Amino acid sequence: MDYTISYITSYITSLTLTDCLTTFLIIALLYTTKYYLSYFTRSNPLPGPLPFPIIGNAYLFRGDYAEVFLKLQKKYGTMMELYFGPKRMIWIGDAKLIKKLNDPSPKSNFPYRAIGSWIDELKMTGMGMGLNNHMSSWRFNRAMLARSVIVPSLFRQLVSVMEKTFEELESYWIKLSKGNNNRIMKIDLADWVYKYTNDIIVPTVTRKPAGMMLTHYNNLTNNNSKITFEQKQAIEMLGRIRIWQRSIVFFYFFPKFLRHYVPPFTFLNSKYLYNINWLNEYFINITKIRRKEIENTPKGEILSSDILTSLICSNTHLGTKLDNVNDEYGRPMTNEEIMRVTIEAITGGTNPLGSGICFTLYHLAKNPQAQSKVHEEIDRALGKDINRPITYDDLIKLHYIEACFKESLRMVPVIPFIFKASDKEDTVAGFKWKAKQEFFIHNYYIHNTKAHWRDPELFIPERYLNDNEKPEENSHLPFGGGIRICPGRHLALTNAKMFITLIFRKYKMELVDDNSFAKSYDLDNGCDKLEVYLSPRCEE
Ligand code: HEM
């Protein structure tokens, strides 16, 4: 043994630089040959850019990824393949070919997300919904969240909180535009809308205040209005939720070896794990506190309708019981289960919602005719009194505004692609695939192709209102589809309709110039800039 080690050591030390380079080149050549041999003999070859060893097609992914994928799908056709490192992803851009992936029945073969063992490292195995492949706990969590987001009192509470929060938002805008004697305000809405949705979703889910808009105003004006400790914590939590989303991408793409042994990946790995622990502790803590508060609430007193309270009370004597379910689903949720579900609810209600609202405002600012129809609809439904409180029933009548939101999410879906996988071998789009093959439903492409939409480049909200022009099945997927369809879609729609109504009830909106709008892809399609002039409608 000693002899072998000393032989190897003396052999290595005797190597010249040329020997090392030659060895490296031989290994690289062998690896590349093996890589391309398996690439060119793969089953079901589809069009797509040539991948390189180790990096796959990563050399193409620059700038706004969503736009890159859109261009690639246009170039290679409705079925293409892309390599994310060594992983082969099948991208489908045809509504007719994704029927099986979007099967809404409980027997669907595609209820899974393609996730690796990294999910154990995050202590998220079998937790929450979005990344949960354990069907029993996924079903339970989903049913509990779904029930807590349809409570009518939640919507009533939401509508009134949104109205008050909008007043606060307007007060900052007015203060910022003082000295402007023609009363037209120039605002970058992208700056404010995300802060607004954050200030709404945090109390909707946790009953806690957030204070994002106030902090933003303080930063812009060097104002030092007091931010409470609770608000500071909520602001930190929101920042950490975004980091959490980033960490999922990191764990998804970088193998364990790199993350555990190769700097700077090791540093990021620890940073992200620390972040997840922070979030877990924060949510466990507020759940425990809220449980105590609920226990101490005098009998007969009505509890608030936030999602956290509903989740705590569900399947207890204080809440309702899930109907038609066996005992497995008839139990209350644990603190850990509530923690994950509330984190996911906040995630959906912050960035995706903010982006959905910004994109709709952008299209309305760009299309004056559609904006006039929004004004007319609001006046018809609410009358001319701009101070009368808006109710949830009012919102139900606003079909044109709803159509505008749908049409914006068609043109720019916030989540531009959705991934699905099966744990069984199955046939999809006419090809037989092995279990765990990852499929990307490319809704951004499906939403913008002539194969499914008349004049897809035009903003036409009317297409959702005409009986003879209903979207084809699986061609409008801003909230995904099948059994994993977004459980927060009604909440998102109510939020969006309310904000659009609040702003257009009082204002006319115009883009400042041709460069007023900018979007980018960062975990989702987001709005970076939306500069508009707002002028009061009462001056019409
Ligand atoms: C405009 C706003 C929103 C958009 C565009 C959006 C979009 C989506 C999409 C595309 C999916 C994937 C569905 C699929 O796999 O087929 C999803 C899943 C999900 N969304 Fe949303 N969402 C929004 C708002 C919300 C809100 C407000 C909540 C919270 C109440 C929420 C909670 C979730 C959850 C928990 C999942 C995972 C569902 C599962 O895997 O079973 N979303 N969302």
TrEMBL record:
UniProt GO molecular function: heme binding; iron ion binding; monooxygenase activity; oxidoreductase activity, acting on paired donors, with incorporation or reduction of molecular oxygen
Family matches, as Gene3D superfamilies: Cytochrome P450 (1.10.630.10)
Cofactor: heme
Keyword tRNA-binding listed: no
Binding site for heme: 486
Family of the protein in this entry: Belongs to the cytochrome P450 family.
Name the UniProt record assigns to this protein: Cytochrome P450
